[in-house]
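Let's study today's protein:

:::
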Amino acid sequence: MLNIPVQLLDVIDKKENILLAGIGGDFDVLGAMPLYYTLKARNKKVHLSNFGSTDFKSVAESSSPIVINPDLIAATATIKNPIAHFPEGYLSEWFKIMFQEDIPIWMFKKVGVIPLRLNYEHLIKELGIDMIILIDSGMDSLNTGVEEGCGTLLSDSITIAALSQINGIDKIVVTTGFATEIEQEICNLSVLRNIAAAIKNDAYF
C-alpha cells in the first residue's frame, strides 16, 4: 500500500474507473503495480496500459492480443511462443498464473501526438475512464529537454502532449524511480529544480 498524498486522494476518491498508463518507457507499466493494488484496495476499477517499444508484429504472430486498430492492441496471457521483449504480455501472464485473473494490458504503438491522442480518446470511451495516471518509472518526464542530462524524454513528451489535448478528464503524472536512470546520465539536480518549480506553481502533490 502506498502513502498517497491527501490532496491526490481527494481527487481519486471521486473517481471510479482509472487508467494507469506507462508514459513512454518500455517497463513503465511495471512501475504502476504498487499504485494498482493501492487503488484496488480503495474499490476502484483499474486498467493498465503502456506506450513502449514492443513490436506489434511479433505480438500478433506469437500471442493472442485484443486488436482495436493497428496502433492500439491489448496483450493477454495467451503467449504461444516466447517473445524477447514483451513486458505487457508477461505482466498479463503473471496475473493469470498468480491470481487466475484475465487482465489485458493495453498497448499504444509508438506514434506521434495526434494518432496517440485519438487512441487515448478511443480507450477512454471504450473503458469509461474518468482519470488517467501516467506512470514514469524514472524521472525524466519532469524534464523539459533543455537540461544537461535530460534523459530519454521524447516518448514521455509525446504522451503528455497528446493528453494535454483531451479535455474533461483528470490527468496526473506519477514518477516512481528517483535516481534510477543512471545509464541515461540524468542530472538529479535538474529534476529537483523542476520539482521545486512545479511546487511553486501548485502543480506538485
Remarks:
- The mean pLDDT is 90.
- The first strand starts at residue 17 and ends at 22.
- The radius of gyration is 17 Å.
- The longest helix spans residues 113-127.
